[in-house]
Amino acid sequence: FPNIVVANADGRRENITAGHWGGEVEPAWSPDGARIAFTSVVDQIDFPWSIWVMNADGSGMQELTDPAWIEDDTAAVIQNDGVASWSPDGRWIAFQRQTWHEEKPFAGSSMQLISSEIWIMASDGTGQHPLISGVAGAVYPAWSPDGARIVFGSSHGIAIANADGSGVLYLTGV
Fold it and tell me: Which of 72, 79, 91, 157 has a beta carbon 3.0–4.6 Å from 67's, enabling a disulfide?
């Protein structure tokens, strides 16, 4: 599994997630540089993925999201959280939540994307709620420098919305 490595200006590197059992990807620095949000595999399996935070030195790892894995005799519904993006003031984290459906027997090739939404939460993981839903394939959120808007990708192109999720405007595509 991949780990998060911090490189200093002199080229020296430090693997700050060595020894952590998951695969860590998609790191994002907090605006003050004190913390890093990242995506990690949960329960040492391919799915689900969740959002974690840690101090910049790799200490204090904390899982912020707890995506669902719901399974019965015929299928599973899996939620994956990833691509964390800090608000400029560091108070909020936007992220993408994807929901997948897979029929048994599990083969990986039968997974179907049900939804992909942009969610938001406080930087301590509380107050999680959908911000952009009903937009096909909403992915990869990024805050504007003033924190007033969020830009994201979708099945129809690049879009922008107010930080409260209102006023979705497509900049490309459609």
Answer: 79
d(CA 50, CA 48): 7
Could you give the count of Cα atoms lying within 13 Å of 132 in the half-sphere of its Cβ?
A: 31
Whole-angstrom Cα distance, residue 124 to residue 150? 20
Tell me the Ramachandran region of residue 83: left when phi exceeds 0, alpha when psi lies from -120 to 50, beta otherwise: left
- C-alpha torsion 153→158→160→164, nearest 10: -20
| 10-residue averages of pLDDT along the chain (174 residues) | 74 70 82 93 67 91 87 84 96 94 71 87 96 86 97 93 94 81
Q: Residue 55 corresponds to which tokens in the numbers above?
A: 């101090």
Residues 38-62 as b/e (b if ≥16 CB within 10 A, e otherwise) read: bbbbbeeeebbbbbbbbeeebeebe
